[in-house]
Structure formats: structure tokens, C-alpha cells
Amino acid sequence: MRAPQDPNRQPTSSRNTGLGPYEFPVLGSYPDRSRRALNVLVALVGIVMTLPLWVIIGISIKLTSRGPVFYSQSRVGLDKRRSGMRADDPRRRLDVGGRPFRIYKFRTMYLGAEEGTGPIWAAEGDERITPIGRFLRQYRLDELPQLLNVLNGEMNVVGPRPERPSIFAKLRERIPNYHLRQRIAPGITGHAQINQKYDSSLEDVTSKVEFDLQYIDQASTWEDLKIMLKTIPVMLFRRGGR
User: Fold this and answer.
1) Is residue 7 part of a domain?
2) Is 9 among the domain residues?
3) pLDDT over 90 for what percent of the chain?
4) Domain-located, residue 106
5) Structural domain contains residue 13
6) Dist CA 199 CA 242 (whole Å)
């Protein structure tokens, strides 16, 4: 059972945590059984209902570009640590900010598209993205395979956007409290995702962190249901897709 919230409590993003860039707060609580049950149920129903679409998408990707149908890469997940890691801790160089996991997505870029640039933010008219990939991103269909990550317990349906370790390492140095996003498992959709566009600059990420920390403060089964329902028009009307 969740503890009653203090009416005078300030949002996480505005509180002075007193934490250094490599320190982590004591976690208040982990997702309860009802939230986990909701995640599993939504993931199972989502996979069953969209399975024919998976087949169509897979065939379309194979027919229009070289390379695999699915994309898998390391992401930073939930950080369960209750003790801080200070900047002078020798383990800092091995710290990626949370438990790493492999994310699954439909491939939207040409094979080897990032060999010359490395990981960078998407932009309007991004030449790395295939025509089919552009369509998938506009309707967020490239993220359907992440339902498998939800079943594995690596992600939730709702939560902060999962980030690559290399980008995470840079952002936590430049954005205050960025690491606090890892107090909860990353999600396919989220409070930040439905209210903001795709990240294309440091300012975009900074704005999303505010939304992420607000969600963490208010996270509940009911809040997750509301965000899931709000995600539907975002997908149908291609808001923020790239």
C-alpha cells in the first residue's frame, strides 16, 4: 500500500536533494503488484492484438532495406541501489547509472547508419532513417517489440524513456537530477513522451526530465492508466514522431 502523500511536499525536480552527480536517493517504493499485473496484462494483450502487424512490418522492412528486422541495443534501466556512489569512488568508471538491459525495436535506420556519426539525436529529414522507418516512428510502431521487455520485467509500459549508456553518461553530467529518472523502470510511453516531442537538443531533454520527475512523484496504477489512454491519440495523430 502506498503511503499517503504529504500535501506540502514539493515536486522532486524542485527539491534540493543534496546529492552529488553520482549519488542516488533512498528509493521510496518499488512498483506494487497491481502495477506489475497491469504491465503484464497490457503487454500480453498488446502483443496478441498487434501480432499480424508485426508480420506486415517485418516483411516491409526486409523488402525495403538490407539488415535485420529487429534492432537490439543496450539501455540504462532501473537503479535499485540504496547507497550513494560519490565522484571519488573507483567504481564510478564502471557505473552506467542503472541495470543495463537489451531493448528491442523494429529497425528504422539503414544498416550502418551511425558508423560515421555515433549515437546522435534524430532530426527533421534525418537521412539515416529508412522510408518505412520514418512511417514507423511517426506512429510509434517501431516500439511495439518493447512489449517483450515489459514481459521480461526490464521495462514498464509507462516510465521515463530508456537511454543509451553513452548518452546517459553525458546527460547526467549536464542536466541536474537527470540520474533520478532511474528510480523507476523505463517505459514505452510516459508523462514526458506524451507531452513533449522527440529529443533533438539538450533543452528538450531538460524539459522532459521535469516531466519524468513529476511522474515518479505521482506514480500509481491509476496514473499509468491515464497515461496509456493519452498515448492513443499521440500515436493516431502522429504527435511528436520523427
Assistant:
1) no
2) no
3) 48
4) yes
5) no
6) 10
Q: How many domains does the chain have?
A: 1
Do 190 and 162 touch, CB atoms closer than 8 A? no
SS3 for 12-67 is HHHCCCCCCCCCCCCCCCCCCHHHHHHHHHHHHHHHHHHHHHHHHHHHHHHHHCCC
What is the domain extent for residue 71? 21-236
* 156 and 224 Cβ atoms separated by less than 8 Å: yes
Whole-model pTM: value is 0.79
Range from 2-6, 129-133, 191-195, 238-242 carrying the lowest mean pLDDT: 2-6
- Cα separation, 29 vs 220, in Å, equals 11
pLDDT digits (tens, 9 = 90+) for 180-213: 999 899 999 999 888 877 666 788 888 899 999 9
Sign of CA dihedral 162, 165, 171, 173: positive
The burial class, CB within 10 Å (0-12 / 13-18 / 19+), for 110 is: middle
| pLDDT level of residue 70 (50, 70, 90 thresholds) | very high
C-alpha 136/C-alpha 64 separation (Å) is 13
Q: Do the Cβ atoms of 191 and 227 come closer than 8 Å?
A: yes
Tell me the sheet residues that pair with 83.
none
Burial of 59 per CB tally in 10 Å (0-12, 13-18, 19+): exposed
Arithmetic mean of pLDDT, 3-11: 42
What DSSP string runs through 210-240?
A: HHHHHHHHH--HHHHHHHHHHHHHHHHTTTT
Q: What average pLDDT score do residues 67-82 get?
A: 88
> Closest by alpha carbon to 74, among 186, 184, 156, 180?
186
Cα–Cα distance for residue pair 223/215, rounded to 1 Å: 8
